[in-house]
Amino acid sequence: MVLRLKARLRALPPNVRGALWMLMAAAVWATNDVIVKAIGRTIDPTQIAFFRCFFGALTVIPFLLASSGALALRTRRFGGHVGRSVMGYLAMVFSWYSVVHLPLADAAALAFSRPLFMVVLAVLFLHEVVRWRRWTATAIGFLGVLIMARPGLGEINLGLVAAITGAFFVAVVNVLIKSLAMTERPVTILFYFGVLSSLMALGPALWVWRTPAPLEFALLVFIGVAGALGQYLTIRAFRIAEATAVDPFDYARLLYAALFGFLLFAELPDAFTLIGAAIIVGSTWYIARRGAAVQREARLATPAQSATTAPGSKPGELP
């Protein structure tokens, strides 16, 4: 039966298989948030982050041994791994604080604002060229964030501030990973993140430590494993299919979050959440589509450029 299922999956078009992987990844991330919200009432997010990092590192070890063992530990960019670990840890703490103190749909929608920060960071640190269309979409996306934040309509909600801050740190992490991936193996990046973030998360976790009950401990283990599983499913989706084909399916997290929030926590999104989330999703979707179009144009232009390259010269040099 399993073999038949695998055969049927392989017979599907790559983009369809990629969409299925992404839908499963979205379900894993949404389930993870549900568990964080449930146990976050009694266990501090900093302690949850420690267990996520620690058990995530243990999950990566078998893959490390299966690839190239100790060779995968070699790196010339240890400082880059440290920076990625610091930013990743802060992203987890802020994001999970928002999950605990906001409705799940609100936290999920604001988490999708990270591509907006990515545009700004890519220009500042990766020196990417962004034209007026993506800048306009980015500005509109931040308008959606402001609508959800409701400035001037009451006291400042720390959960909203934490969600936006967490999205910013996730964007920083994505920029750092993009830089590290140019020279480092994926398993190397995951391993150093697991080890370094566990070490830096231990101190804050001990400060607020509360010994978890057996069920809570099992859920904390699940959070660590699910974090690694969600990354694996997402990577599989992007390896099989085109990014523009599967990326929209990641927005299923919003549907899962709204459904879980209603069924498990009696949460109903208000008008500000619905309008702001729609603007954020629309703008980030456009940014992704436009970015892919720019990459296609660059690839199509490459053969023409290489055709004019003189023998013995490097691409990009004048003959």
Describe the structure.
With 319 residues, the chain is mainly α. 78% of the residues lie in helices and 0% in strands. It has 13 helices and no strands. α3 packs across α4 (78-101), α3 runs antiparallel to α9 (186-207) and α6 packs across α7. The protein is globular. The protein starts with a helix and ends in a 12-residue tail after the last helix. Residues 304-319 have low confidence and may be disordered.
Set out the fold topology.
Elements: H1 2-11, H2 14-39, H3 45-67, H4 78-101, H5 104-111, H6 114-125, H7 132-149, H8 158-180, H9 186-207, H10 214-240, H11 243-246, H12 252-265, H13 271-307
**Low-pLDDT ranges:** 304-319
Quaternary state, please? single chain
Percentage of residues in helical conformation: over 70%
N→C terminal distance: 60 Å
Secondary structure class reads: mainly alpha
Q: What is the C-alpha radius of gyration, as a whole number of Å? A: 21 Å
- Count of DSSP H/I helices: 13
| Mean pLDDT over the residues | 81
Please report which band the strand proportion falls in: under 5%, 5-15%, 15-25%, 25-35%, 35-45% or over 45%: under 5%
Approximate shape: globular
Largest sheet: none
Number of strands: 0
Write the element-wise H/E pattern from the N-terminal end onward: HHHHHHHHHHHHH
At a glance:
The chain is mainly alpha-helical. It has 13 helices and no strands.
